[in-house]
Specification:
CATH architecture of the largest domain: Alpha-Beta Complex
Largest sheet: 7 strands, mixed
Bound molecules: zinc ion
InterPro entries: ADH-like_C, ADH-like_N, ER, GroES-like_sf, NAD(P)-bd_dom_sf
Protein name: Enoyl reductase (ER) domain-containing protein
CATH topology of the largest domain: Quinone Oxidoreductase, Chain A, domain 1
Number of strands: 18
Number of domains: 2
Distance between the termini: 21 Å
Keywords: Metal-binding, Oxidoreductase, Zinc
Helix content: 25-40%
Structural class: alpha/beta
Cofactor: Zn(2+)
GO molecular function, one term: alcohol dehydrogenase (NAD+) activity
Amino acid sequence: MSSDIPKEMKALRVLEAPSKYYSLETVPVPRAEGSKVLLKIGAAGLCHTDLMVLEGSFGSNLPLVGSHEPAGTVVALGEEAETTGKVKVGDRVAALLPKDVCGKCSDCKFGDWKYCGFSKYGGINTDGYFSEYALVEAKHCVVIPDSMSFEQAAPLTCAGVTIYAAIKKANLKPGEIIAISGLGALGSLGVQMAKAMGLKVVGVDARPEPLDLARSFDLSPNLVIDGSKTSPEEAVKEIIKLRPEGYEGWDGVDATILTADPLSSHQFALSLTRRHGQVILVAQPPELHFDFKNFIFQDLTLSGSLHGNEVDLKETIDLCAKSGIKSHIEKFSVDDHKLMIDQNQKEDRKGKIVLTF
Ligand SMILES: [Zn+2]
Ligand SMILES: [Zn+2]
């Protein structure tokens, strides 16, 4: 390990769950071994999942460093990481959350390792990235362009790649219509990405701040629907106007992505989706309630979508860099970590919270 890497570092750890806050501690800097590389963290995002870890929802082994959204500079390579040539010391990278995928299960061999049931997830069941230095897998790193800041790159590793993979899963053609229900961290990136991919985009939320934020983007949705003021019937009438002249087909959007937890938002979004359309779930509410009529009489298909792999992350980063897609960021320093959690609870919050070092 290079001599300018210190022996100790500051880290935000979950000591016991449920806890309201992290504990700011001094811990040893981990060593880069095997297939892993050591990052000097530039920025790490706070995600809804981090709050679930603090609440104890995952039964994680504690103590644990929080966050699963890292971006930083490679400062040391494990022996294997050196031979793969995937990254080198000095590279600015964003990295995906899993560590230690098993390499042996059916998904690692034939499917997509993101479904590996044996992997450890940084910030969830192994140390994450709210620390000055942290380990990531070399193969899960993607080099970011010089034009992209660490605080813009960090949210792409979970929120960004998750919504990107969900849009890709909808498999729509340019000109077709996608609705993104919930314009928080995922949804506000998603409306910009879907627009950049040539889709017509309907953004749906019921809170004024996220609606205003979506309207302010250069890549703003073709239609913004305030679910607190609009009936599904009125919304569908507006959606019909997005179709080209002479359109023959069903009324409503071709696919809908559910990014928000409130059950009322799901029912509203299903009512906007055309017959034989698709609904893709990325939200993780404690329970789901759907009306069978939407699935039987509307012939909707519901599927879930998990984050993404390194190919998806590379595509996400390229798309955001090329199209100037940005998250609305609120930055906090490690010493202001309690303020960061308090700010996250606020009703009128919009965009993404990121810890910077
Ligand atoms: Zn996340
Ligand atoms: Zn596996």
